[in-house]
User: Which sequence fits this backbone?
């Protein structure tokens, strides 16, 4: 395998036989982290689903500016994620850092009840994004520490499944409330706050504050150079650096779901009102396949599944652009998109976590996630230009072709200069 | 936090979690039940405004069509008052509308449909509020206009979530045939010309159409790209938008077609303050009116010298008033119709 050399903790390659003999045991901490994410996602997605309507229809605020600020917030979220990952490693207290992130988002929910003006609302949105940025890497570091190394991707699959259930339930809950009370935004916010508080309480009570590392006494000595960690200057030589590069290249060819849905809708003259159901469908496939594909990654190779997942995305691009019409094309595309998420989201984190020393666990994870987030943001911006320049069909076929090439080239990118 | 209490063990922690969950869910549940109760009471209560008796159909004499935002019965419904007595009793239609506009022959109504997923739709009604056509909208209703011959409607919606920019909002403005709901043009796809040059940037947004009186083909609208905003003159048949002025948003042509009223941002792009301004199309002179509040609406002409626009009622979310102001420097605004939104004057 391409990264087997650095893949110490039972990744792939030679240890394959030994690995399968370890029975899978789900760590309670990971289930708790999944439950925390589930409640938090119900909380955040229920608000996200009603926010545009709340702002325009109810408060009568200008929304174009809000869109701009939301973009800035997302960028800030990525930077905070890096900083929080580093802090989590530095302090050796991933739980406390994650708790600060979840706590900040819950506080933002409370503030939402009182925020009326444009800047106040922008502030609460920013706080929520920053909270999300803070918590992600330390939480994934905790999953890594608690998972059996042989079943790491499967454990991430369990977490992502619970997380996605929350993301799917949130908007439904919000819709149900607004169905009962058309202007019941404050009720949505109060219910959202309740879920956020339960999530924070579950984290505080049931997730132990594990240090990611037991530091060697030697490492405490300032004169002794720390053991091999992340040497950013030499990143291009390291396995993590190669993974980041590969993920970045693939991310640059991963256009937003919105474009795919739009292309499907244009081609199949799908009724507009079913548009939101495309998101629900993708999420449903994602949550169903998160565990099976995590399992496959543990058995067959995480790199293979991560890269192979991008082939599902290529397939989805083609289905959305080829002149097949009808429900089958739409359903096929949603399934492929769900496969793509299930085989890349948790699996990449599992991969990254294995390529750094324990002292740099959260930093490495946050680096990989930031690379993916930033490259996908760039991809969507660039694809928008292409979409208008050459039309949806050509644009999707073009990006699909490039992505197929990138998938074929990924093994070369991942292969180190010495170990081939 | 309470983790220090390790001796309490799992049982203690479960007890705390269940307690927290019970308090949080009970609190939210009580709030929700009270909110439902309040909503049902509100809906059943008599309207804050005086409602006119009689069956719903458009008046024969000149009238103002608007969205009724008075709490109580008929909240959110399209309503009319006589132009000669705008503060008098309002006739409600029984039709829910977020945004509405009308002509002598028909009414357009944009609305939010609640359900498992929230949907948006546009409906056309005849003079007796019978639905004539209906089509789905791609986002949150923002602006609606109908030409005064009643043949075409223009709708602007905010598209969220799946916009071209990834995150954030974009607008989508469509001109549709009143007769059958068939699309006559999606303005984001029209050729946009600024100083003779074609703007092809992908972030083009078009909003706030106003039809030239008597011509369903010619219109004015707002176009924006890369942070710049233009007043554009458009042609449905030519599929073009030509920039004619800078910085004017949500234009509205006077009934005689000689002047354009619009909102004009006097502050930064992120926290806008919109003044109302009027452009004389013959001599290019611009008058900025003295309304202290920021006006985020597409203004409507009451007559050739007076404007109407909606302003939210401070501290009462979901409610608003329609104000009037004379087109003259130093004129002062006054409330035209209380508890109302989205005015349309049908002469």
Assistant:
């Amino acid at each position: 395998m391409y990264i087997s050399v650095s893949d110490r903790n039972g990744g792939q390659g030679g240890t394959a036989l030994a690995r399968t003999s370890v029975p899978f045991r789900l760590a309670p901490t990971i289930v708790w982290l999944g439950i925390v994410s589930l409640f938090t996602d119900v909380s955040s997605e229920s608000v996200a689903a009603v926010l545009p309507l709340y702002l325009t229809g109810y408060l009568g605020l200008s929304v174009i500016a809000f869109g701009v600020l939301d973009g800035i917030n997302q960028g800030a979220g990525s930077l905070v994620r890096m900083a929080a990952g580093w802090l989590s490693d530095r302090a050796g207290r991933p739980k406390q850092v994650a708790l600060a992130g979840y706590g900040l988002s819950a506080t933002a929910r409370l503030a939402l009840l009182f925020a009326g003006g444009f800047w106040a609302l922008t502030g609460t949105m920013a706080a929520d994004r920053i909270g999300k940025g803070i918590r992600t890497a330390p939480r994934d570091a905790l999953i890594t520490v608690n998972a059996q190394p042989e079943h790491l991707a499967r454990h991430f699959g369990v977490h992502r499944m619970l997380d996605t259930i929350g993301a799917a339930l949130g908007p439904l809950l919000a819709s149900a409330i607004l169905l009962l009370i058309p202007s019941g935004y404050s009720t949505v916010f109060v219910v959202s706050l309740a879920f956020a508080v339960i999530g924070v309480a579950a984290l505080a009570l049931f997730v132990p504050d594990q240090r990611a590392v037991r530091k060697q006494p030697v490492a405490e000595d300032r004169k002794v150079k720390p053991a091999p960690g992340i040497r950013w200057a030499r990143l291009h030589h390291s396995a993590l650096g190669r993974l980041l590069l590969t993920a970045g290249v693939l991310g640059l060819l991963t256009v937003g779901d919105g474009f795919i849905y739009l292309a499907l809708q244009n081609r199949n003259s799908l009724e507009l009102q079913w548009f939101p159901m495309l998101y629900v469908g993708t999420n449903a496939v994602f949550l169903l396949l998160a565990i099976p594909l995590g399992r496959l990654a543990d058995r067959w190779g995480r790199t293979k599944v991560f890269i192979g997942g991008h082939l599902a995305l290529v397939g989805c691009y083609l289905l959305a652009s080829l002149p097949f019409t009808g429900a089958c094309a739409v359903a096929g595309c949603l399934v492929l998109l769900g496969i793509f998420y299930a085989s890349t989201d948790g699996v990449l984190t599992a991969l990254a976590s294995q390529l750094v020393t324990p002292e740099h666990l959260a930093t490495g994870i946050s680096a990989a996630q930031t690379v993916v987030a930033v490259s996908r943001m760039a991809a969507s911006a660039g694809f928008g230009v292409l979409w208008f320049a050459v039309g949806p069909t050509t644009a999707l076929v073009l990006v699909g072709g490039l992505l197929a090439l990138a998938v074929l080239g990924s093994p070369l990118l991942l292969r180190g200069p010495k170990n081939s | 936090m309470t983790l220090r209490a390790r001796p309490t063990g799992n049982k203690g922690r479960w007890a705390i979690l269940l307690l927290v969950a019970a308090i949080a869910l009970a609190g939210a549940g009580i709030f929700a039940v009270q909110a439902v109760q309040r909503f049902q009471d509100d809906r059943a209560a008599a309207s804050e405004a005086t409602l006119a008796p009689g069956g719903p159909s458009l008046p024969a004499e000149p009238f103002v069509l608007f969205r009724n935002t008075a709490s109580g019965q008929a909240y959110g419904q399209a309503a009319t008052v006589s132009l000669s007595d705008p503060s008098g009793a309002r006739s409600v239609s029984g039709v829910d509308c977020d945004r509405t506009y009308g002509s002598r022959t028909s009414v357009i109504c944009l609305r939010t449909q609640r359900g498992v997923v929230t949907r948006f739709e546009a409906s056309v009604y005849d003079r007796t509020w019978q639905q004539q056509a209906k089509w789905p909208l791609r986002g949150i209703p923002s602006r609606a206009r109908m030409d005064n011959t009643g043949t075409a409607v223009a709708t602007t919606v905010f598209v969220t979530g799946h916009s071209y920019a990834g995150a954030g909002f974009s607008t989508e403005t469509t001109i549709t045939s009143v007769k059958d709901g068939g699309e006559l043009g999606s303005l984001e796809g029209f050729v946009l010309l600024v100083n003779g040059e074609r703007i092809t940037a992908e972030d083009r947004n078009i909003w706030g159409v106003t039809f030239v009186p008597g011509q369903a083909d010619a219109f004015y609208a707002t176009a924006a790209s890369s942070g710049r905003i233009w007043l554009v003159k458009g042609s449905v048949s030519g599929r073009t938008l030509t920039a004619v002025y800078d910085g004017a948003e949500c234009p509205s042509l006077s009934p005689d077609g000689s002047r354009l009223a619009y909102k004009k941002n006097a502050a930064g792009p992120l926290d806008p303050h919109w003044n109302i301004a009027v452009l004389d199309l013959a001599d290019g002179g611009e008058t900025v009116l003295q309304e202290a509040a920021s006006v985020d609406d597409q203004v409507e002409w009451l007559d050739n010298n007076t404007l109407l626009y909606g302003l939210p009622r401070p501290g009462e979310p979901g409610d608003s008033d329609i104000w009037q102001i004379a087109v003259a420097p130093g004129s002062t605004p006054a409330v035209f119709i209380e508890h109302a939104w989205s005015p349309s004057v049908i002469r």
Observations:
- The two ends of chain A are 8 Å apart (CA to CA).
- Residues 28-58 of chain A form the longest helix (31 residues).
